[in-house]
Structure of Pirin family protein:
Amino acid sequence: MPAVTVDNILTLPRIAAPLPQATVRPVRSLTTAPQGYEGEGFPVRRAFAGVDMATLDPFIHMDQMGEVEYAPGEPKGTPWHPHRGFETVTYMIDGIMVHHDSTGGGGQITDGDTQWMTAGSGLLHIETPPEALVMSGGLFHGVQLWVNLPKSQKMTPPRYQDIHRGEVALLSSPDGGALVRVIAGEIDGHPGPGVTHTPIALAHATVAPGARLQLPWRQDFNALVYVLSGRGSVGAERRPIQMGQLAAFGPGDVIEVAADDRQENRAPSLDLLILGGRPIREPVATYGPFVMNTREELMQAFEDFQAGRLGTIPAEPHPGHDVL
C-alpha cells in the first residue's frame, strides 16, 4: 500500500500532542463492511453498511475497491451512469483509473492521486482501467466516497478537482510512528488541497506496529475511522479493529487509534481512512446515483436523466478510454 510516503518521516511537520484537558472520543459503533461487486464486476467492501445515516452525515456512501491483483484481461470498471446532488471522491492507493464525463471533464488517477467530482446539477460519468492495465493486469486498490451537498448547492454546476499525490499535506505524529496524508480539510492547522462545498476533513494514516496516533478533531465534526489494512484498536476503550471495519465516534476533542504490535506480512502497518464533517442535518432522499432531499426531487432527477438533460454520451470514445 504505497500511496504517498517519505524516506524520513521525522522531517515532516509534527501533529501537536493533545492538551491535558482534551477528551478522547468514545467509540459509538463498530461495524464490518460486507463484500460485494460494483460496476462491471470489480470487488468492493461497503464501508458504511449498517450505519445510521444520522451518524454518517454529511457522508452518504463509501466503497473500498479491491485490494485485488488482476490477471491479464480481468481489470473492470463501470459503464456510463448519471449522478446528481452530491460529490464523488475517488482516492487511488494502487493502480490506475481513468474518468470521463458528459461535460468533457475527467482524467487519470494513480498511486496516491484523488479525483474530486462535484456532480451537482447532474452529468453522465464513466470510470475504467486504461487499456494497458487491462492487457497486463496488476494491483487495484482505492476508495470511493460520496459526500452530500446541502439543498442550497445540490444544483451547483459540475466541477472537477484533480489532486495529485504530491499536493497532499504530509504530517507526522509526535514520535514519528504515524504518517498522516491530509487530502481535504484541515488537521491541527495543516490544510489539505481538496476544496469542499461541505466542511469536512479527509486523511489517510499509516500507523507503524505498536505506535499510537492521537488526532485533534473539530468538536462540530462527526468522526469515522475505516481500516484499509492491518489490525489495531480505537478510542479510549481500545476497541479492537481490523481490515474492513468502520468505527464511528461520539463527541470529544481527539481521535485515538493504535496499531497492534504484530501485523500480517501482507499488511505490515495499520492503514486507516479518517474522515469527518459538519452534519448538514437535512432530509436525505437517495436512490441509485441520485442524492436529493425529497422523493419528488428524485423523480425529477430520473425524468431529467431519461430526457437527456444530464448530458449525452460522447459519440466518439476518448483516446485510451477506460474507467471506474
Observations:
- The chain has one domain: 17-306.
- The first strand starts at residue 27 and ends at 32.
